[in-house]
Amino acid sequence: MAENENSSEVSDSKYEEFYCCYLLRSLAPNYRQTGYIGSTNNPKRRLRQHNGEISLGAKQTVKKRPWEIVLFVYGFPNQVAALQFEWSWQNPSKTRRLHLTSRDEFRENDDKLSTSLRALSKMLQDKFWSRWPLHLNIMVPLGSIKLQQGRTTINASTLFDITNLPKKIRVTNGNIDEFNDYHKGSIRKHVRNEYSKYLEQIKKNNISSCNICLENIDFNNHKDYINCLNIDCNMSSHITCLAKQFTKSEALEESTLKNSYDKLKEEILPISGKCPICQMILLWGDLIQAMMIREKYVLNDLVLKE
Ligand SMILES: [Zn+2]
Ligand SMILES: [Zn+2]
């Protein structure tokens, strides 16, 4: 991704840590139940492209302009995971992970908006995806979207009830500017935490050790270690040490007679776990994000403008 000239500032265009899958809804009079699923690292710019305000819009959406973003999902472990999520969301009837009892659950002739909402609801409930540290940002209240189903009119919220989502999925509401502020706020929080801890560690002459294996940590090797997200906690560990600890406890929780602990231990990717010092629950995705932000901001000595 290209760095912009203002790299010392956290600006709207700085979304390197961010990638989302979004759902659009057409506002054209005859296409109100038309949806469109895509992915982007900048939803504000992408919407302007779909609406033809700036160039490079997706061709499929030209006829049904204007569009609005109903909601988007982010917090994927990496961009490949986001693209896989996007594909499954676009093709729910072909997605084996959804374990559909029959392919008719997502009929081709259903309108795209209803299908997309039902598919997302099902995906976020599914164990496979709900293990990821996903966030859902809702831009248009679902209760305000009316959908025609045969002769009856229903609310979109009956197809996708957010109160039923697994607790791990964080839900926020608001327009894109509110979301940008929220997202920038969370980056700032990580930068503050990581900066102050880095300065502490360097003051100690870089001789602190990993809280798990007790071997030394090289605090200038930013890809090698993780700090607790609790600003008052001094836990630092090698990334591999904490990953092993998290996967062990997850495998222990998930193991059954059929799926043995040893087998699971090999397969599971860390999703979350407790800090070994302060016991705070930490999401793996948040830890990795904080590590990447530390590498970028601390290493390049970027100053945050308040
Ligand atoms: Zn270690
Ligand atoms: Zn801690």
Describe the protein.
By secondary structure, the protein is an alpha+beta fold. The chain folds into 2 domains: 20-174, no CATH class; 188-299, Zinc/RING finger domain, C3HC4 (zinc finger) (Herpes Virus-1). It has helices at 43-50, 79-90, 112-125, 127-130, 176-203, 239-254, 261-267, 284-299; strands spanning 20-26, 35-40, 67-74, 135-138, 146-149, 152-155, 170-173, 225-227, 236-238, 272-274, 281-283. Strands 2-1-3-4-7 form a 5-stranded mixed sheet. The chain has a two-stranded antiparallel ribbon with strand order 5-6. Strands 8-9 form a two-stranded antiparallel ribbon. A hairpin with a 2-residue loop joins strand 5 (146-149) and strand 6. It is globular and about 70 Å long. Residues 1-15 have low confidence and may be disordered. The structure holds zinc ion (2 copies).
How is the secondary structure organized here?
Layout: E1 20-26, E2 35-40, H1 43-50, E3 67-74, H2 79-90, H3 112-125, H4 127-130, E4 135-138, E5 146-149, E6 152-155, E7 170-173, H5 176-203, E8 225-227, E9 236-238, H6 239-254, H7 261-267, E10 272-274, E11 281-283, H8 284-299
This protein binds zinc ion (2 copies).
Q: N- to C-terminal separation?
A: 25 Å
- Strands of the biggest beta sheet: in what spatial order? 2-1-3-4-7
Structural class from helices and strands?
alpha+beta
Radius of gyration: 22 Å
Strand content: 15-25%
The domain count comes to: 2
What is the average per-residue confidence, as pLDDT, rounded to a whole number?
Answer: 83
Helix fraction by DSSP (H/I, runs of at least 4):
25-40%
Give the topology string: H per helix, E per strand: EEHEHHHEEEEHEEHHEEH
The biggest sheet, with number of strands, parallel, antiparallel or mixed sense and barrel status, is:
5 strands, mixed
**Which hetero ligands occur in this complex?**
zinc ion
Specify the number of helices. Answer: 8
